[in-house]
């Protein structure tokens, strides 16, 4: 293990690789194109772990991220974010180098994209219940209008993209399956409705991709979080604690026996301010140790109670482990791996290899 | 104004400088040493704005931050965080170069610090009600023991430090004044109790420092957030909207007339996942425009409803301004300026000058 002096992000490579392999196999069995979302790790090294499983097409959440991965040899990239027309210049450069797929949801943006000299592929982003971005899946006339507008441009209509982010509100695999059933029937209906255009159907949030075994009417999946998972995915039922590959090492800087709490060097700037409401209240992470193999063991019922900028407060309803003293290091299993990765400048494998990250 | 293509952090320098001047004057009138916390801005350029107001002693929240500001000419630094004994080597290097003040709360850490070759100044961090870090202010015997241990070392006992972070729960100036009255009476009692050691009393969260006019029994104040303020400080009553100096520009990437919402390019990776419960529910920022002078105008009743990694959802109980379309840029006044600054790689003044930040 690497020497630890301050909050440091660790990734268990063996677990992450197993997560990638399992998802790649699930995609293969279901005859789905596996186009993983790279916003979770933002790392060229982790990208290579996907390449080893045969991945050639990827998904990102910003033009900047597309530029980073294009520079690292990825040639088939979907930017799963509504086109930001202020970045047409950067999109032009990208489109001249890689097979680029963008998400649109109105005709004006499609027309603006026609000023590009290179051809891009366009998904119409639809909203089948999450209500964040995308055009309402029932707005058939509007969708028809966008397809027709695309057909007047140099670009290719590829199909429909839906991100079911509302699956993060699920708290059981039953909830996830119900959400998937609803979503997939809506998408199947959409596919049938626009059958003349042979639309590709793209979806795949981590909860659905982890819980569902048989996918029908879907052409590609685009999950990201599953590479590391996190406490939220455990709460959803999308993974077990043994599938979580991400931990932040935090030195203990104070202990308070009277109120059964510790303070760690590790705050919102390391873990993000993400939290989750659980049956014991709002928590910001689980707490445990990491053995020499990089395997995490949670201390029973010990959690991150609150985070300020650099401080974390650790609490438990049981007496906190007496083996831990000021100067020891504990490991936090985070609430949301994507946000934690984004907070930290880089990461290390549990065997000490650097995992770099795109610069902000 | 700088050309904006993606989420960018802007600081109104005139407002920030006025905030610094006002706090410096308040400290001067009250005969307090003004030792501002630099964790909010993390910037050498902003540090210079403080120097112009006569500031020579500063406060930081990590050893890394102390190293950064020491390298930028600051020679009197308090690290307002429980000593992380895993960083003794870095502390040694710092202590050989600058007047370094550290916070301790137990005798074991004091003994470990005695292995340093350079002398440091030690505050005993006390807890007068916030219950995050610090020794309970009523633990007189324990405090006496720590002072006596410090006296056996090469280091100097400086006094007591208290951060009243619970002032962030206040929702009126009356709440803040009541909290200050309680805290200052406890600190005055502590000062009297340990009068033989002539202890310096250090405190000064932004709400108390902004709301209180007459300080008694306090020797130094250490606020940080006031340089930029934010929506939380407005909700507390610590500032008005005209004193807020920080905004994040965000391109509008989708509009939804049917549900009266916009989606912006601007998410938790730009603004942090900080939110605040208000009478209209949980919000993640105010929304408005910035004029050519860098002055912010809030759109009436328009707020950030939710944030995911890169998306922000904007909502209102009134019809959203019809003048804003896809491709326009709106400005977000954030919930918590310290966290937003930490998320962003750097900032710009509203006249376009770069404000760099320490590297993570």
Judged by helices, strands and strand pairing, the structural class of chain A is: alpha/beta
| Average residue pLDDT of chain A | 97
> Quick one: which chains have the greatest interface?
A-B, 55 and 55 residues
Strand content of chain A: 25-35%
Shape of chain A: elongated
Oligomer: homodimer
Instruction: Point out poorly predicted stretches of chain A.
Output: none
Largest sheet of chain A: 9 strands, parallel
> Gap between N and C termini of chain A, in Å?
27 Å
Helix count, DSSP H or I runs of 4 or more residues of chain A: 11
From the alpha carbons, calculate the radius of gyration of chain A and give it in angstroms. 22 Å
Topology, number of strands of chain A? 20
Share of helix of chain A, binned? 25-40%
Describe this structure in words.
Chain A is of the alpha/beta class. The first copy, chain A, is 29% helix and 27% strand. In chain A, strands 2, 3, 4, 5, 6, 7, 8, 9 and 10 form a nine-stranded parallel sheet that branches. In chain A, helix 4 links the parallel strand 4 and strand 5. The mean pLDDT of chain A is 97. The interface between A and B is large, with 55 and 55 residues.
């Amino acid at each position: 293990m690497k020497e630890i002096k301050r909050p440091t992000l660790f990734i268990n490579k063996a677990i992450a690789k197993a997560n990638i392999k399992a998802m790649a196999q699930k995609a293969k069995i279901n005859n789905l194109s596996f186009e993983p979302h790279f916003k979770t790790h933002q790392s060229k090294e982790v990208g290579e772990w996907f390449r080893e499983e045969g991945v050639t097409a990827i998904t990102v959440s910003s033009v900047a991220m597309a530029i980073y991965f294009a520079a690292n040899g990825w040639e088939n990239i979907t930017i799963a974010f509504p086109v930001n027309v202020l970045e047409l210049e950067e999109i032009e450069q990208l489109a001249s180098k890689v097979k680029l797929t963008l998400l649109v949801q109105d005709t004006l943006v499609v027309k603006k994209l026609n000023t590009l000299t290179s051809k891009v592929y366009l998904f119409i982003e639809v909203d089948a219940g999450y209500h964040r971005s995308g055009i309402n899946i029932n707005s058939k006339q509007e969708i028809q209008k966008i397809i027709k507008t695309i057909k007047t441009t140099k670009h290719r209509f590829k199909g429909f993209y839906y991100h079911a982010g509302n699956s993060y509100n699920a708290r059981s695999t039953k909830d996830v399956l119900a959400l998937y059933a609803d979503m997939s029937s809506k998408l199947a209906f959409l596919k049938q409705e626009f059958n003349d255009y042979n639309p590709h159907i793209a979806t795949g949030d981590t909860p659905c991709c982890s819980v569902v075994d048989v996918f029908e009417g879907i052409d590609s999946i685009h999950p990201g979080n599953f590479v590391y998972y996190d406490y939220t995915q455990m709460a959803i039922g999308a993974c077990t604690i043994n599938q979580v590959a991400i931990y932040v090492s935090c030195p203990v800087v104070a202990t308070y026996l009277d109120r059964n709490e510790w303070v760690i060097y590790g705050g919102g700037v390391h873990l993000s301010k993400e939290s989750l409401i659980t049956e014991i209240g709002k928590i910001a992470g689980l707490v445990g140790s990491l053995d020499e193999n990089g395997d995490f063991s949670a201390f029973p019922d010990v959690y991150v109670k609150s985070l300020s900028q650099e401080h974390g407060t650790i609490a438990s309803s049981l007496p906190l482990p007496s083996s831990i003293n000021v100067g020891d290091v504990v490991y936090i299993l985070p609430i949301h791996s994507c946000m934690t990765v984004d907070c930290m400048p880089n990461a290390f494998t549990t065997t000490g290899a650097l995992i770099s990250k795109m610069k902000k």
